[in-house]
Amino acid sequence: MTIDRSVLLFAGCMVLLSVVLTTYVSGYFVWLTVFIGANLIQSSFTGFCPAAKVFKALGAKEGCAFR
């Protein structure tokens, strides 16, 4: 799996987790969803994504977006 697909999978899982936590634990977990969205937006403009750095360190193959 490439870094690009790993980042997308991780972001999707985190959004779903934050929705579940917001629904069943506390409404404040909506801020996790906001953080994830803001991080996705800034990475689309800057090309910097902390999760991509982690996946690269773990040995994921490079993709088109994150090198």
Please give a structural write-up.
It is a single chain. The chain has 67 residues and is mostly helical. It has one domain. The chain is 70% helix and 0% strand. The chain has helices spanning 3-24, 30-46, 50-57. Helix 1 (3-24) packs antiparallel against helix 2 and helix 1 (3-24) packs across helix 3. The longest helix is centred in the N-terminal third of the chain and has 22 residues, at 3-24. The chain is elongated. The chain starts with a helix and ends in a 10-residue tail after the last helix. 12% of the residues are buried. The mean pLDDT is 94.
Give a short summary of the structure.
By secondary structure, the protein is mainly alpha-helical. It is built from 3 helices and no strands.
Average residue pLDDT:
94
Helix content: over 70%
Q: What is the domain tally?
A: 1
Derived structural class? mainly alpha
Please report the distance between the alpha carbons of the first and last residues.
14 Å
- The low-confidence runs, each spanning 5 or more residues with pLDDT under 50, are none
Q: What's the main sheet like?
A: none
Shape: elongated
Count every beta strand, where a strand is a DSSP E run of 2 or more residues. 0
**Number of helical runs?**
3
SSE succession = HHH
From the alpha carbons, calculate the radius of gyration and give it in angstroms. Answer: 13 Å
Percent strand equals under 5%
